[in-house]
Every structure is written in C-alpha cells, then in structure tokens.
Amino acid sequence: MLADIHCHLDFPDFEKDLDSVIERAEKAGVVSIVTAGLNNVTNAKALEISKKYPAVKAALGIYPEFAAQMGEEAVKQEIEFIRKQKPFAVSEVGLDATYPDMEKQKEVFKQMVSLAKDLKIPLIVHSRGAEKEVFDVLKEMNARKVVVHCFSGKLSLAKQMEKEGYFFSIPAIVSYSSQFRELVKTISSSHLLTETDAPFLSAVKGERNEPASVKQTAAVIASIKGVSAEEMENMLFSNFQKLFMQ
Ligand SMILES: [Zn+2]
User: Which of 105, 171, 206, 208 is placed for a possible disulfide with 201 were both Cys, Cβ 3.0 to 4.6 Å?
Assistant: First the structure.
C-alpha cells in the first residue's frame, strides 16, 4: 500500500479526468491521497474532493503567498473555518523567500503550527529559501508531527530536522534529481514518505504528475537504499500510518 501525502487535485489540470486519475492511483496501490488547499477557495475545493473520493483526504492551510496578502481578520476567519472541518493535516503552510513579507508569513505560519498542535494532526510544511527560518519556528513552538515537503535546503539541516523526529516526503523527481537522491541517502528510511505535489514535479519533465507516480518514487527510494521495492513500500506505509493514524 502507498500514500501520496501532498498533491493539489483541485488544480484545473485535473478538471476533466479526476475520476480516472484516482482510479489509476488506486490501481497502483495508493490508498491515501492528501490534497492540500492554499487559501479559502482551494481549501473548500479540497474538502469537496475529499468528500467525493474515499481515498482522498483534505489538508487545509494558508500558503505563504496568500499569508502575506491576507488581512488579520481574514486569516482569523480561515483558521476558524479550518478548525471546524477537522482536516487530515494542516497544509499547505510554511515560509517562502520568493514571496514578500517574511514577517507576516511568519506570523501566519506560527498560527498554523499551533492549529495543528491543537487539532493533534500533522503539519505538512513548505519551505523555499527559508529552511532555517522554518526550522527555528518549528523548534520554538515545539511542533512534533511534522512533514517537511520537498525539502531543498542543506543536508546538515535535514539531519537536524530528522533528529527532531520530522518526516521528509520525497517527490517523483527523485528519479533524476541528485539533490533528492542525496536527501534520501541522508535520511533514514524510517523518516521518509512519498508525495507528488501533482500536477507539479513529474518524473517526466513537462508532463502532468499524478498520485499514481508514488509507486515509481517508492521503487527509486528502494533502489537508493538497496532494499526491495516491496520492503520499501511497507516501510513507507508504516511511516505514514505512524504519523497520520496515531
Ligand atoms: Zn504543494
């Protein structure tokens, strides 16, 4: 069994054939697909999709780009909305240096961390050019159930995050990206998960990614770690259960 712990099924890319996308994932053995919202509009869409497909779970959050744009009252309202929905995880949240207003981003991110703690659900974190800042906030707030999605910071920092008990979700581009291959080598198998970030980050450049591709990702991780694909799938799925089901 497999899990895609991070994707965006509400994107227009999936509008025409979501039924067959989910079907292909299930055929590949993917039993859990976590689709993440980015703001009030996409949070609502993620919820809607999760109600339609039993395998799909909704993660709700405020993405850094929107965190920087939203007023205080709008943030407060969205957090109350998320709290009431009992989401599967808090996501997509984090810090991103390519968007303006890091201070405002931090303010909202801290609220998302405490929301996940209150709800006792995992926090799936995005960071771009702000890995150290993300780690500082997580440590300061004593966040425990953490997945670092698509980590692209320094390996020494990843190692420190692993020591804190954080998990790392590996995308399909691990098949050609030396950066992610090194990350897989660095982090022990007990702290790895699979994701797609679909429709983005396909193993085939320029193509649409979809949740079924975690099957291939698990096989690539297995080959890097020198174990059988089956053994790695079992490990990855038990990691997923440990983090999300307990
Ligand atoms: Zn994403």
Answer: 171
